[in-house]
Design goal:
This protein is an all-alpha fold. It has one domain.
């Protein structure tokens, strides 16, 4: 009975993670004659169910949850600022609801850290991405009207693979994450896992194939950057010279600059007949800065900036840009606009602290899960130069960020305790 219960819980986790990628549902809702993005009435309802189940699971292990949840104050400070922004938001109909969902998303991330070790998490992520990879091939080959780009963005990318995602760039982004997970698992030399190495290697190859078939230049640049970083992070485990972290920093800067130069806005440029290269992006940021300096400390409220013409801030930006940009195309800029310097500072401190912990955790371990935190943090940093995937509700990127931070702290403390006990026994 207990084994069946554990299996059901894992199925629940995979389902929640799958849903958090925005897979499948949006492609069935879109219509060619829709003037705007079709609203999804189903996903919010499903996530409310997920968070209710999560709450029940947390209650079962509330002592463990509380012990883990108090390991990092910066995450909760950031979420607290987002929730408190209901007091000053310019979108009072949006921010209260989204902030509650953000709390639910964060609790789900902490629950994963409480319930599963990093290695188990990687296995659950592999099941999730494996399902996305498989369905993406099925839809692109057997149901091309759904699995390929057709009328979207005025037909500018007709024929590019999007799989079960709403857009080819979303598929490319997720497949980078998939490639990291399968790539790490394929490096696992432990006896129980080595016999399944061909499965994880296949998952890695198919993830790369989908990156290429998506024709997303940004996704390809990020993949090459992360591929270059992996052996350097492995070398950092044994090398105490300054050259390795210096090379890592250089590659991160070059990779981030490349994603910035190869911006991911050509589909909007094609639809509007405009040349939206780096200049177009800096135009967005310039207009955002005009607004940010009016509310520099706390911003305009969580999810209060990029909405519709009825929102005064959004209307100002769209009028000055002369086109309806869906977001700021930089995660840090969007966070600064929504939660001000207070929110951005909380995230930056959280990220830097997590990276330092990641380095310590990397040097302490020799296993694949020791590489996962730094690889994910690098992925998150690079992508948010041109995308906005930092603080998001019902979103896999925020879930993984929260889970990585709390899992590292817990497992680091356990490893230190084990080393201390082993030293006493040896004496």
């Amino acid at each position: 009975m207990r084994r069946l219960s554990r299996l059901a819980e894992k199925i629940f986790v995979v389902f929640a993670l799958f849903l958090s990628t925005t897979a499948l549902i949006p492609i069935f809702l879109e219509t060619e004659d829709a003037a705007d993005v079709t609203q999804d009435p189903y996903t919010p309802i499903l996530f409310m169910g997920i968070y209710m189940v999560t709450l029940l699971l947390v209650i079962q292990r509330w002592k463990s949850f509380v012990r883990v949840a108090q390991k990092d104050i910066w995450i909760w400070l950031l979420v607290g600022i987002a929730m408190a922004s209901v007091l000053w938001t310019v979108a009072p109909d949006i921010t209260p609801r989204r902030s509650i969902l953000l709390l639910g998303t964060t609790v789900f991330g902490v629950y994963l850290a409480t319930r599963y070790r990093l290695r188990e998490q990687l296995q659950l992520f592999a099941w999730t991405f494996g399902l996305i990879v498989l369905l993406s091939f099925v839809f692109a080959i057997a149901l091309p009207s759904y699995g390929l780009m057709t009328f979207q963005e005025g037909g500018a990318h007709e024929g590019a693979w999007r799989g079960i995602m709403a857009h080819k760039n979303i598929l490319g982004r997720l497949m980078n994450l998939s490639a990291i997970v399968f790539g790490l698992l394929s490096l696992d030399n432990s006896a129980p896992e080595s016999k399944y190495r061909w499965v994880t290697a296949l998952g890695f190859v198919l993830s790369l194939a989908l990156i290429i078939l998506s024709t997303s230049k940004t996704a390809l640049i990020v993949f090459l950057t992360l591929t270059a970083l992996l052996p350097l992070y492995r070398a950092w485990r044994s090398s105490y010279t300054q050259i390795v972290p210096l090379i890592i920093a250089v590659i991160l800067v070059i990779g981030s600059a490349a994603t910035l130069l190869l911006d991911n806005l050509p589909f909007i440029a094609s639809a509007l007949g405009r040349d939206l290269t780096l200049t177009g992006r800096t135009d967005i940021w310039a207009r955002m800065f005009d607004l940010i300096w009016e509310r520099p400390l706390f911003g305009y409220g969580f999810n209060g900036v990029w909405q519709d013409w009825d929102n005064e801030v959004t209307a100002y930006l769209w009028r000055n840009l002369e086109w309806p940009s869906p977001y700021g195309h930089n995660g840090f800029m969007d966070l600064l606009a929504e939660l001000g310097l207070s929110g951005l500072a909380a995230f930056v401190i959280s990220y830097v602290t997590a990276y330092v912990r990641g380095v310590v955790w990397l040097r302490m371990t020799k296993t694949i899960e020791g590489l996962w935190p730094l690889m994910y943090l690098s992925f998150l940093l690079i992508y948010n130069i041109t995308e906005s995937t930092l603080l998001a509700t019902n979103n896999i990127f925020w879930i993984l960020y929260v889970t990585v931070i709390f899992s590292m702290t817990v497992e680091y403390e356990q490893a230190k305790k084990y080393s201390y006990v082993s030293a006493i026994v040896d004496e």
